[in-house]
Amino acid sequence: xxxxxxxxxxxxxxxxxxxxxxxxxxxxxxxxxxEAGVSPSTVSRALNxxxxxxxxxxQRVHAAAARIGYVPxxxxxxxxxRSSRSIGVLISDLRNPFYADLAAGVExxxxxxxxxxxxxxDDGSPDEEMLAVxxxxxxxxxxxxxxxVSVLAxxxxxxxxxxxxxxxxxxxxxYGDTVLGANKAGAKLATRHLLDLGHxxxxxxxxxxxxxxxxxxxxxxxxxxxxxxxPVDQELIAYTSFDSAAARATVARLxxxxxxxxxxxxxxxxxxxxxxxxxxHRGVQLPKEMSLVAYDDVPWMSMVRxxxxxxSQHTFDLGRRCAEVLLARLTVxxxxxxxxxxxxxxxxxxxxxxxxxxxxxxxRVACELRVRGSSGPSPA
Amino acid sequence: xxxxxxxxxxxxxxxxxxxxxxxxxxxxxxxxxxEAGVSPSTVSRALNxxxxxxxxxxQRVHAAAARIGYVPxxxxxxxxxRSSRSIGVLISDLRNPFYADLAAGVExxxxxxxxxxxxxxDDGSPDEEMLAVxxxxxxxxxxxxxxxVSVLAxxxxxxxxxxxxxxxxxxxxxYGDTVLGANKAGAKLATRHLLDLGHxxxxxxxxxxxxxxxxxxxxxxxxxxxxxxxPVDQELIAYTSFDSAAARATVARLxxxxxxxxxxxxxxxxxxxxxxxxxxHRGVQLPKEMSLVAYDDVPWMSMVRxxxxxxSQHTFDLGRRCAEVLLARLTVxxxxxxxxxxxxxxxxxxxxxxxxxxxxxxxRVACELRVRGSSGPSPA
DNA sequence: GTTGAGTGTGGCAACGATGCCACACCTGGC
DNA sequence: GCCAGGTGTGGCATCGTTGCCACACTCAAC
Lengths: 380, 380
Fold this sequence. Notes:
Shape of chain A: elongated
Strand order of the largest sheet of chain A: 2-1-3-4-5-12-11
Radius of gyration of chain A: 27 Å
Number of helices of chain A: 14
Strand content of chain A: 15-25%
Distance between the termini of chain A: 80 Å
Mean pLDDT of chain A: 89
Order of helices and strands of chain A: HHHHHEHEHEHEEHEHEHEHEHEHEEE
Number of strands of chain A: 13
Oligomer: homodimer
Largest interface: A-B, 74 and 75 residues
């Protein structure tokens, strides 16, 4: 087997063709030390600012480092320090704007703090999720932000001493912190909006209620009814799967069997798409014949006419908040003794339940009802 | 300064509160070796399958590793092997579905090949781009996929022996491979579609033509006119900035000064949004009074009525292709002698120009015209 | 019975950065 | 003039993995 040695040997011969400037290998602390006329230890101290280093020497080292283009090897640092500045981010579907925005928010906050994001798509598959967990473990990430699929993944991470933040939904209260949208409040707001408009037979289109996101939205829907003393018709809670085609079929069935429905509340953007397509296909007039409200505002909802009334989750902020919560843990970790406090310096509109730095934290990011043209008075 | 040592010492005392099972540190090859009754070298050989290892021993080692839950430290491996399995991916805006889809495609292909993606958003800023380059360098990534902003970043990466793939646009032909959409062909297709419908005053809404993406689309627009022997009215090429509000204002100005325009071709999804909003705002009837065609199909375009005629870039595939092109380079690199061939096993519809494994490669991913309701016969 | 090839295993150094410890030097006080 | 204390620097081991090399052993052939 011509292993690595051979590869390296050959690489030089090929250098000008494939990898142009790999003729001189990357500079290390040793090289900086030689250049500055000091020892590697001193270089380390001078660059990191920890420990003694005469001002003059410090300057000389910095100059030398800049001159030869020294970039510290992150892997060596991680190996030595036993913790990296990479954060694992595990989401279900990057092509869904909800997850994309979430990831974008996470990335922004991480980058601002000098961390970076390893992004893995699990397509909602527990197996892929577990594989990602192994990857993150191997990389020694200090924390992971995940829209969780299986409790096992959370548990495994937790066992391995990795800080976990569950985003958007909470599968377990035992492992790490959680950042959620105000699902119940949002769904209640939306439902109440419809009730206020006189609707009495409001169908809820929802995919699953095993996850907190779905369950809480359902609860909000019920709560609004209860507040208005309008009984909930169980038949109007239409369960479907997380797929716009399926949602569309479900809506079709619903409209056929229950022509008395005057409003439709779709529990997320994917289901809303199916619903909207079916209504459009049938030529149902919004909002005259039917009102439509969606949870989770995504771009198409404000482009179509009438524009869709939605509950915005402030998804980007949600992502940012996830990163902040995680970073707070890491900082506490670093600080030896807990100095950082709980620091719920909440970007306006997020409230946090849960105790100090030691306990599990649950952060809620506020949502907002955006009334647009798709919701109007009940025709009845 | 209570440094790292202190942190560790304290960590144990806190273990049950913060990081539950960090009481036992992570198992290493040493631990596996002890468990299996062999030496670390043998463990390495047994697990990696390189070099001798008796079948019985191999089995014993695997069992031991599984029993104690051994996960190799990726950082130590990278340090030792001088190359990681992380790929840097640098894009402009994750919240734009174009970039999100691109990243999703990249991620899928990387994951399938056992690599993972460090995703960084540079918001189109050269400074952020350079910072990301430093990060990637520090992490010793073997390759980077980038929607480039500045040539300097490409050059820097190239100098450091990192394989580069320019995605979507090509800023320089000197550094690494490139994967582009068939911009000219696509724009020509779209323009020709409008010309065929009888339009003669087709405005082009475009942000900039310094990048290949814009320049090629402009070229396609011109080429279609030339083919049809229709002169291009320079005034109808409306330059704006990459921003839907600006695009909208530009469209407004255009429509005011040139009421004779019968069709609008928006060079990307962001500009298309601005155009659509302005047309909608003015109550312009599509396609009766005006036709609209967009480059880059994104979800809202098929949700609105009339749905927008677009050129789909197959963005997800574009991303996948970027990863494939990069991985091919890495494989050649590994293989000591070039065994892998050029292997343009193109997923149907992508054609590659450029020479074998040693030369720079330029791959084009085919696009497709999707005719929808927003384009119709010229009113004239 | 010795030699040689072939087979399997362990020792050890290296990847690059870091921080503890030891030590050299300088200054001031008695 | 000697010692104590402070200041700045270098040596060295370490993080976990890998692969080269050396070596031990088995077996067959001469």
